[in-house]
């Protein structure tokens, strides 16, 4: 009698088939990991670095490498350019101004979970070919702009680069790459105008006068924080205005939230995320306690914080960005930079004229807000390069 095959195969055989199918699906893409780090197996990258994947929290298809968690590591191969860079403003050229130590130039940021690629000027300009990058903000954003221009200018022949000026904007042009790197002065983002009796009025709901300089950019990097919290003595305005209502006093964080909301609305209404990348850099920390002398004679980064402090401005910024539908990436440099109290100009914000002046530096003002270049903003730009 001929036996017939069992129409129901053994359970363990079904299990093996399912497991094999799952195995093929899971490993179908040999380059990516579901834990958010992509292996960069580009032939040009000999050290097979981990490519950094940064995205909004709503994008679950690509996970993130947290660039903000890490430590400063001394690296004698830094800096990536020297203080002879012709684009450095006097206030941040600390070596030219007589700063005696130079180790503050030699620290790189090492994230815990992935690597931060070293800035390669030719690769950066290659990626940015025919693109317009605009950095918008205050004097610390100009600090970052000078850093970025100095990072790239060395690979551009003298006759093939230039700087142009247009109103509140200045631009470095790498002509062979058709790349433009601009800085646009707009420390409050919204408009500050003269009113009746020469009073200075901050219009919390007007922005177009500044924003017209940003139109057409491929990459926009913003910052705005410090001017909103200047003391009354140093405040840049006399009145706030919203619509037709004018206010003498307002909680600065409420004013900041209103100004950022105006900026967010402009971004959403005027930019196309398929055409323009938007990044908002968090506030640069200041080390101004003890009347600005907290950074004086500091020569090494802090290893850790005795207590963590999150500035109010950062909390307000995160909330505004959270409510936006336009994909804006927050480049958070606040905590990592707070460890670098050694990186400020301090008294070396202008040239030391003679030996007598050098001996009495305590009589000079100390800048613990801006950053010496080469220095900390170079690392911000390495992060920016990784994001792009």
TrEMBL record:
It is found in: Membrane. Its main location: membrane. Coiled coil: none annotated. It is a single-pass membrane protein. Residues 64-115 form the Trichome birefringence-like N-terminal domain. Keywords: Membrane, Signal, Signal-anchor, Transmembrane, Transmembrane helix. Residues 1-32 form the signal peptide. The keyword RNA-binding does not apply. It comes from the Eukaryota. Residues 116-386 form the Trichome birefringence-like C-terminal domain. It holds the Pfam family PMR5N. Belongs to the PC-esterase family. TBL subfamily. PANTHER family: PROTEIN TRICHOME BIREFRINGENCE-LIKE 36 (PTHR32285:SF155), PROTEIN TRICHOME BIREFRINGENCE-LIKE 9-RELATED (PTHR32285). This is Trichome birefringence-like N-terminal domain-containing protein.
């Amino acid at each position: 009698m001929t036996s017939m095959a069992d129409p129901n195969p053994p359970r363990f055989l079904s299990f093996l088939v399912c497991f094999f199918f799952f195995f093929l699906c899971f490993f179908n893409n040999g380059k990516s990991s579901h834990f958010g780090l992509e292996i960069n197996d580009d032939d040009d990258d000999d050290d097979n670095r981990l490519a950094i994947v940064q995205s909004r929290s709503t994008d679950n298809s690509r996970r993130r490498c947290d660039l903000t968690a890490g430590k400063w590591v001394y690296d004698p191969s830094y800096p990536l350019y020297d203080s002879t860079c012709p684009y450095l403003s006097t206030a941040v050229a600390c070596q030219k101004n007589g700063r005696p130590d130079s180790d503050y130039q030699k620290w790189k940021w090492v994230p815990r979970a992935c690597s931060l690629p070293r800035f390669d000027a030719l690769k950066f300009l290659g990626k940015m070919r025919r693109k317009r990058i605009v950095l918008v903000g205050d004097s610390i954003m100009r600090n970052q702009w000078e850093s970025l221009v100095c990072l790239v200018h060395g690979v551009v022949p003298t006759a093939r680069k230039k700087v142009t000026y247009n109103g509140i904007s200045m631009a470095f042009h790498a002509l062979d790459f058709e790349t433009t790197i601009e800085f646009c002065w707009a420390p409050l983002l919204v408009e500050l105008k003269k009113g009746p009796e020469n009073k200075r009025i901050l219009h919390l709901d007007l922005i177009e006068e500044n924003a017209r300089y940003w139109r057409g950019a491929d990459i926009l990097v913003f910052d705005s924080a410090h001017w909103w919290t200047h003391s009354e003595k140093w405040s840049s305005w006399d009145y706030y205005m919203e619509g037709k209502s004018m206010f003498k006093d307002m909680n600065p964080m409420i004013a900041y939230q209103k100004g950022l909301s105006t900026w967010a609305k402009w971004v959403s209404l005027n930019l196309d995320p398929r055409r323009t990348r938007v990044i908002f850099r968090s506030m640069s920390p200041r080390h101004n306690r003890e009347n600005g002398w907290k950074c004086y004679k500091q020569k090494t980064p802090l290893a850790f914080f005795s207590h963590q402090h999150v500035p109010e401005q950062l909390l307000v910024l995160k909330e505004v960005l959270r409510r936006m539908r336009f994909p804006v990436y927050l480049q958070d440099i606040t905590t990592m930079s707070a460890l670098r109290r050694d990186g400020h100009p301090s008294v070396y914000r202008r040239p030391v004229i003679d030996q007598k002046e050098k001996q009495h530096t305590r009589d000079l003002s100390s800048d613990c807000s801006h950053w010496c270049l080469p220095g900390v903003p170079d690392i911000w730009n390495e992060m920016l390069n990784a994001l792009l």
